[in-house]
Amino acid sequence: MTDLRSLPVPDGLEGERLDAAIARMFGLSRTRAAELISGGDVTVDGAPAAKSDRVSGGSWLEVALPPAPSAPVPVPQAVPGLAVLHEDDDIIVVDKPVGVVAHPTPGWTGPSVVEGLLAAGHRVSTSGAAERQGIVHRLDANTTGVMVVAKSEWAYSMLKRAFKERTVDKGYHTLVQGHPDPSRGTVDAPIDRHPAGDGRFAVVAGGRPSVTHYDTIEAFRAASLLDVRLETGRTHQIRVHLSALRHPCVGDRAYGADPTLAERLGLRRQWLHAVRLGFEHPGGGHWVEFTSEYPPDLRHALDVLAAES
Questions:
Q1: Taking the model in full, what pTM does it have?
Q2: What confidence tens digit (pLDDT) does each residue in 136-172 have?
Q3: Taking the CB of the first residue and of the last residue of the chain, which one, N or C, has fewer CB atoms within 10 A?
Q4: Could you tell me if 123 and 197 lie in one domain?
Q5: Residue 64, burial from CB neighbour count under 10 angstroms (0-12, 13-18, 19+)
């Protein structure tokens, strides 16, 4: 059953192509938006339109959206390498390995943190959507490091609020190509879905406010190791912002990294690791902080660079 949406075009999208406007308004890929238009599922001011037509602010859109795919329900399954760093009545802090998502999503067939914890007999909060039990923040599948999961319903509410209000210290280390100039700085640039509609994100005017602070830890001949602190938590934020600076994370081919350098360092994913996470403990209000060591593949890449310097 389709979901018929009727609403005006926001003034901020004045002059945009119709397919781009629909993608932005409904969180679709550009390709999917174009398919809806060509299939006759979109009208502008009551008339059919072409995907390349430019929209005007205030024009009336009617879009027949297909039903959203149902999210998979977590099924307990063991996740090798998923280590528990800390556990108490309210929280579980884990060290997430590579190739693991935070929770099940449509189209993902690999392991997830939620399913791994359930398989190991841990209790997690049941607040929120069924597939996101206990999840208050996420790391990309190929980003490793420290994550907190809520066990109690109180912890879920308090941690969600803390992430929303930006009172959580989220620290990452990343290896980037070249040498950022200045060596320490802030990227304050809005992020939204990439216009290509291919699952990537990009710095886009009118996107969601996003702020990333970075500081160089060590400069190698071909790359720099950075300490990164996030004020916001947008999808792919570090990867997008550093790519926008023309210093993509080493190994991050989706955002313009050099595959030759990644191969030389033995990397099969982006060099990005969540090294620390600090927040007020929801059970007592005291500040807690957890850290994670580099996994072997990231450590090996640094060893190779150090030997070359």
A1: 0.78
A2: 999 999 999 999 999 999 999 999 999 999 999 999 9
A3: N
A4: no
A5: middle
Question: Is the Cβ–Cβ distance between 148 and 162 less than 8 Å?
Answer: no
Closest CA to 122 of 84, 160, 148: 84
Helix intervals (H) in the chain? 18-26, 30-38, 113-119, 153-164, 237-244, 259-265, 296-308
Which residues of the chain register pLDDT less than 70?
1-2, 68-71
Reading the block at residue 36, the tokens are 């809806």
Domain presence at residue 19: yes
* Catalytic sites, residue numbers: 140
245 shares a domain with 124: no
Judge whether 273 and 174 are in contact, CB under 8 Å: yes
**How far from 268 is each of 8, 91, 107, 199, CA to CA, in Å?**
45, 32, 21, 19
Structural domain containing residue 55: 3-65
Alpha-carbon distances of 41 from 45, 62, 216, rounded to whole Å: 13, 8, 50
- Answer yes or no: do 137 and 226 share one domain: no
The Cα–Cα gap between 79 and 91 comes to 19
